[in-house]
């Protein structure tokens, strides 16, 4: 019975958190209590939350506390202390992202200047996706594929999932040939065409794809766009031929019926 009551309390607290109006009215001890659910799944964390706030004063000071001091509070295990100390590190990364100025990447040169400091230190071949807003400003650059072998199916799945989370207007791509020339391989071109084609159905445009090598960098989008348009023309021609065959067959069927 105690477990059922305890479980019901946790569910009520989670529901309150997920409610937009409710979450803005939640008290510090309630937020800390919910946070501790995930570090202490089988124990009442309400008391621990109150004791932590009584000891340190505010939620911010709880996060900033020395791990050794956290462990002195009744009920705080090393697991809880480590969990609490995880959040300031996450907040720092989040704040850096929020405060980072947006960079316009409307040209290949601007995209190169934006990506090069990020990709320069990579020892293996990495594919980066640059997420772009309606003003052609990059608001995030994320490595999605790491290693010497890029599997296009996994690449597409990761890009689509990430686009659904981040909601960009468009993307650009960048990858490196750490031990070779920036000259694109056939696989580089084919992979980009596949990505461009799949994202077309999501209303997401691929603006550019640049490759960094020992001899500099280059954009492959002129080649990609040319081949992409040829592919669309071929598909359009195929569809017209198919519709023509259908109409001929339908005419013959009608003639036979008569």
Overview of the molecule:
There is one protein chain. The protein is α+β, with helices and mostly antiparallel strands and 258 residues long. The protein folds into two domains: 2-99; 103-236, Cytidine Deaminase, domain 2, CATH 3.40.140.10. 60% of the residues lie in helices and 15% in strands. Strands 1-3-2-4-5-6 form a six-stranded mixed beta sheet, with helices on both faces. A hairpin with a 2-residue loop joins β5 and β6. The chain is elongated, with a radius of gyration of 27 Å. The N and C termini lie far apart (80 Å). The mean pLDDT is 82.
Briefly say what this structure is.
The chain has 258 residues and is of the alpha+beta class. It has helices at residues 2-18, 20-24, 28-37, 46-56, 59-64, 67-70, 78-99, 108-119, 152-166, 186-200, 221-257; strands spanning 103-104, 126-132, 137-146, 170-176, 205-213, 216-219. Strands 1-3-2-4-5-6 form a six-stranded mixed β-sheet, sandwiched between helices.
């Amino acid at each position: 019975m105690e477990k059922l009551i305890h479980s019901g309390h946790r569910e009520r607290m989670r529901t309150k958190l997920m409610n937009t109006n409710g979450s803005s009215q939640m008290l510090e001890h309630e937020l800390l209590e919910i946070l501790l659910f995930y570090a202490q799944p089988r124990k009442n964390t309400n008391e621990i939350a109150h004791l932590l706030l009584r000891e340190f004063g505010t939620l911010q000071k709880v996060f900033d506390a020395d791990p050794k001091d956290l462990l002195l509070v009744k009920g705080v295990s090393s697991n809880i202390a480590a969990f609490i100390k995880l959040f300031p590190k996450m907040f720092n990364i989040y704040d850096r992202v929020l405060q980072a100025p947006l960079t316009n990447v409307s040209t290949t040169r601007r995209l190169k200047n934006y990506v090069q400091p990020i990709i320069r230190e990579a020892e293996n071949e990495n594919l980066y996706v640059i997420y772009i807003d309606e003003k052609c400003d990059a608001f995030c650059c994320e490595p999605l594929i790491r290693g010497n072998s890029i599997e296009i199916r996994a690449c597409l799945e990761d890009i689509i999932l990430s686009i659904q989370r981040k909601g960009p207007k468009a993307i650009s791509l960048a990858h490196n040939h750490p031990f070779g020339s920036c000259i694109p391989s056939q696989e580089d071109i084919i992979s980009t065409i596949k990505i461009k084609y799949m994202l077309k159905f999501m209303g997401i445009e691929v603006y550019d794809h640049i490759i960094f090598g020992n001899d500099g960098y280059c954009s492959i989008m002129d080649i990609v766009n040319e081949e992409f348009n040829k592919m669309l023309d071929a598909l359009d021609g195929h569809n017209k031929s198919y519709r023509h065959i259908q109409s001929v067959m339908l005419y013959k069927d009608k003639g036979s019926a008569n």
